Amino acid sequence: xxxxxxxxxxxxxxxxxxxxxxxxxxxxxxxxxxxxxxxxxxxxxxxxxxxxxxxxxxxxxxxxxxxxxxxxxxxxxxxxxxxxxxxxxxxxxxxxxxxxxxxxxxxxxxx
Length: 111
Prior knowledge:
The chain is mainly alpha-helical and 111 residues long. It has one domain. It has five helices and two strands, in the order αααβαβα. The chain has a two-stranded antiparallel sheet with strand order 1-2. The longest helix is centred in the middle third of the chain and has 14 residues. The radius of gyration is 15 Å and the shape is elongated. The N and C termini lie far apart (40 Å). 20% of the residues are buried. The mean pLDDT is 80.
């Protein structure tokens, strides 16, 4: 700002804005290995409506039920805004969509 570098992590920003930031650092990290392959597969099977799916993967928005599409849209527009359009839900998008669907206050690590 005005030539001065300002660094704020998710926790500090949450305090400044008065909003919870728990789990945000897990969401934005590139390494999604915190979630087991079994949990990722279960999420992908549920959200893609393909119970026979054998590998976890990004789920296309068009393959989701209408409610899950709406929740994903809300997430990418309001919770974790994205400048670009998004047609697929990655691992953490799937996790947040599932948590919102179930009304859970848990984190993605405790599915």
